[in-house]
């Protein structure tokens, strides 16, 4: 299978050759320097080769070798210590199944085509480029990792056989001679230890990561990847299965953002970059490369390090002014889900602790003595909470909240109160929490989204705190839903984002209604009102976006396919418009709403719990969900439903899905929506009156609206060509728009003011600063 990659297009390349070798575990040892805005250290990768996890075919064997006949130039290991000031090379990767097209690419390289991330300091044991005159590179296996904007300093093989006590992993007959085969056998035994021995496994991963080098490896980098080879290692089986990479990030790297928090103190965090984590550490980006990790991070003692980790890490003082933090995970997940945030965060605790608070905070860790199996799982082996009887009944997992000091009060008042009921609601709907604990961080003001979920940690925008509980609650429920859909169950093909965002959007309403303990009628009214809002947004987005960006399954029958080496592309992955589009959220939501109504809520959510239990810890495609769902629908309820029909009507077409065309719009029978319609009529009458007649006529009496009703009202008003200045001022007086949440303010900014005025007003929105009661000039009352 040949994949053509044109860097001038907006597709994101996934370069790692995961069909040949898979990373099973990462050990990171990093230091954060805020003065230089660099993260520097080492990462050790532990691999399994393709012969271990799939039968090696003849085509795979061919692609394990470089196919081109050109002479390759690698950075060559040197025994001496020399400064490298201007090392250059030309490197061309020749995959038989992965073609890079240069046409139209902006030239960001040196004149000789080098993309080598060369920065190295004098005195560091370094490597320089030299021509491999014997041309061994043509026959040697090439390991390819995803890598961008990193300065790679050294790559070396790790001598895991030198670790004291490691002999217990090897049969006595193999201990006579230390060889590549022996080292790889040690790594294999280590990565395949039974889950019950996870503590021992993590301990030996650390010991092996600190083992001495047994030789440096040839390496080179280009725009998107790091390529590594060892002379004489012609297949993945022969290649070292434990390698250590010394590197440092670049200040301009797109995976992390260096900024200041709301208190003006420096911080750095991963903010969900389109290129994921490849500018944070060399890794395998394709989702199939599910791995565990552990990381030690050093920073100045005044900083707090938060990370995707199962443990609630505490700092260890290394020396005066410097602390170390250590995190780990034992559930294999894609490297793209790794998240880190370093800043002067303040932990927010309740003003008063009650006995109930302490009771629900008790964790249920998995251990050899406590683990009681309650079901059979289908995923690769790891210490799974679904197999722990105590964990399955834990409604509220241990949680912490961190924020800049200036936001501590509002977090105590709003966020801390919402977490227990939202977590409990999620458990009541879907069952066992996949992760044992949760941190929430209020991220800096430049965060471009309302929230982002990663294993064991959620980033929330400060904007969610401005609308009291009605905005923070649903957003918190949305991110908690990603614990199941997006993290515990991931998409095997990243173009199928609806499998994450559609599910989270559909579940947020269910979780939020449960968290509020609403009566069934009130819960249905609230869900219908929010469905009506989403219907307006979907129609607007489909009118104003390219058709090719509206398709939920753009690769159609090729979805999930990769090249023979495992390399692939994410369609439109680098398109800047994608960050502002909600089509995967909205069309995915309406598909799931359609299916839930066809089955009935009780049947649908009962099925969803079964689906979660079967597929947690795994990657899925759309058909995995749809096929299992249809198997659970009685024949009389699915005469026109099939996987093929759903693909055609919902996932592989642009525009409004066929089943929604001509159907009654969401909210048609909702009392909350009808009340908004009545208020819209009043505002239209007011807006159409001549200004001179207004004072002589009886003033309109406007009803008080719920926050979501106000947003729907503004959605309707946005459809009008013009709104007069007096109408805007009356809107401000009636609804105190300056006190509303970011969602209502954003809608107001979108059309109720001119572009120039909006720019002046934007600096006062909660996404940039607190409002502090300032009313935008166009909404101020005037004679």
Automatic annotation (TrEMBL):
> Which ranges form a coiled coil?
none
| Domain of life according to the entry | Eukaryota
Gene Ontology molecular function = metalloaminopeptidase activity; zinc ion binding
Any one of the GO CC terms: nucleolus
Please name the Pfam families in this protein's record. Peptidase_M1 (PF01433)
Query: What are the protein's UniProt keywords?
Result: Aminopeptidase, Hydrolase, Protease
Please report the name of this protein according to its UniProt entry.
Aminopeptidase O isoform X8
Gene expressing this chain? CUNH9orf3
Q: Which SUPFAM superfamilies match?
A: Leukotriene A4 hydrolase N-terminal domain, Metalloproteases ('zincins'), catalytic domain
Q: Which organism is it from?
A: Heterocephalus glaber
**What sequence ranges are listed for the domain Peptidase M1 membrane alanine aminopeptidase?**
433-650
């Amino acid at each position: 299978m040949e994949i053509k990659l044109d860097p001038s297009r907006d597709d994101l390349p996934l370069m790692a050759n995961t069909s040949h070798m898979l990373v099973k575990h990462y050990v990171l040892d990093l230091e954060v320097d805020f003065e230089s805005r660099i993260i520097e250290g080492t990462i050790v990768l532990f691999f399994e080769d393709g012969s271990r996890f799939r039968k090696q075919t003849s085509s795979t064997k061919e692609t394990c070798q470089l196919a081109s006949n050109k002479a390759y130039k690698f950075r060559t290991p040197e025994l001496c210590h020399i400064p490298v000031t201007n090392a250059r090379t030309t490197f061309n990767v020749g995959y038989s199944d992965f073609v890079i097209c240069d046409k139209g690419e902006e030239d960001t390289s040196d004149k000789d085509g080098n993309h080598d991330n060369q920065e190295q300091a004098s005195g560091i044991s370094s490597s320089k480029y030299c021509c491999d005159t014997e041309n061994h590179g043509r026959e040697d296996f090439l390991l390819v990792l995803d890598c961008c904007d990193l300065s790679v300093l050294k790559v070396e093989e790790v001598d895991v056989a030198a670790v004291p006590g490691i002999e217990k992993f090897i049969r006595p007959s193999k201990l006579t001679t230390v060889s590549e085969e022996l080292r790889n056998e040690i790594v294999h035994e280590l990565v395949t230890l039974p889950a019950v021995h996870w503590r021992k496994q993590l301990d030996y991963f650390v010991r092996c990561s600190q083992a001495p080098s047994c030789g440096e490896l040839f390496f080179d980098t280009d725009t998107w990847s790091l390529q590594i080879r060892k002379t004489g290692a012609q297949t993945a089986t022969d290649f070292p299965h434990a390698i250590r990479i010394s590197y440092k990030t670049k200040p301009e790297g797109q995976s992390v953002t260096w900024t200041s928090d709301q208190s003006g103190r420096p911080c750095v965090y991963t903010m969900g970059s389109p290129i994921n984590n490849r500018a944070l550490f060399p890794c395998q980006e394709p989702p199939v490369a599910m791995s565990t990790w552990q990381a030690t991070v050093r920073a100045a003692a005044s900083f707090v390090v938060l990370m995707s980790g199962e443990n609630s890490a505490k700092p260890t003082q290394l020396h005066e002014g410097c602390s170390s933090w250590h995190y780990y995970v034992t559930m294999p997940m894609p490297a793209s889900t790794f998240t880190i945030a370093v800043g002067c965060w303040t932990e927010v605790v309740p003003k008063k602790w009650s006995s109930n608070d302490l009771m629900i905070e008790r964790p249920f860790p998995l251990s050899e003595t406590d683990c009681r199996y309650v079901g059979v799982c289908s995923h690769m082996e790891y210490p799974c909470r679904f197999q722990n009887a105590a964990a399955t009944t834990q409604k509220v997992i241990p949680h912490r909240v961190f924020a800049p000091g200036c936001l501590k009060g509002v977090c105590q008042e709003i966020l801390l109160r919402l977490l227990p009921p939202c977590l409990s609601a999620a458990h009541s709907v879907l069952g066992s929490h996949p992760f044992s604990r949760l941190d929430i961080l209020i991220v800096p003001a430049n965060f471009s989204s309302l929230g982002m979920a990663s294993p064991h940690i959620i980033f929330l925008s400060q904007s969610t705190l401005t609308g009291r509980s009605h905005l923070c609650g649903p957003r918190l429920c949305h991110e908690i839903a990603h614990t199941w859909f997006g993290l515990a169950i991931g998409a095997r093909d990243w173009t199928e984002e609806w499998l994450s965002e559609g599910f989270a959007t559909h579940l947020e309403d269910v979780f939020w209604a449960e968290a509020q303990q609403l009566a069934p009628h009130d819960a249905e009214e609230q869900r219908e009102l929010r469905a009506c809002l989403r219907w307006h947004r979907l129609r607007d987005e489909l009118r104003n976006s390219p058709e090719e960006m509206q398709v939920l399954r753009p690769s159609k029958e090729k979805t999930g396919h990769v090249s023979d080496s495992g390399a692939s592309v994410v369609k439109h992955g680098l398109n800047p418009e994608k960050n502002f589009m909600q089509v995967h959220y909205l069309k995915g939501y309406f598909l799931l709403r359609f299916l839930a109504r066809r089955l009935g809520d009780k049947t649908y959510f009962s099925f969803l719990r079964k689906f979660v239990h079967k597929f947690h810890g795994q990657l899925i495609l759309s058909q995995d969900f749809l096929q299992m769902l249809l198997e659970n629908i009685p024949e009389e309820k699915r005469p026109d439903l099939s996987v093929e029909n759903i693909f055609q009507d919902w996932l592989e077409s642009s525009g409004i899905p066929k089943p929604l065309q001509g159907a009654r719009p969401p909210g048609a029978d909702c009392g909350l929506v009808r009340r908004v319609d009545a208020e819209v009529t009043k505002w239209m009458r007011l807006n159409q009156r001549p200004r001179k007649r207004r004072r002589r006529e009886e003033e309109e009496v406007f009803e008080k609206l719920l926050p979501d009703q106000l947003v729907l009202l503004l959605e309707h008003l946005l459809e009008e060509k013009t709104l007069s200045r007096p109408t805007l001022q009356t809107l401000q007086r009636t609804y105190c728009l300056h006190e509303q949440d970011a969602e209502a303010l954003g809608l107001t900014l979108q059309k109720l003011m001119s572009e120039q005025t909006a720019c002046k007003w934007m600096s006062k929105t909660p996404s940039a600063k607190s409002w502090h009661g300032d009313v935008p000039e166009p909404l101020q009352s005037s004679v």
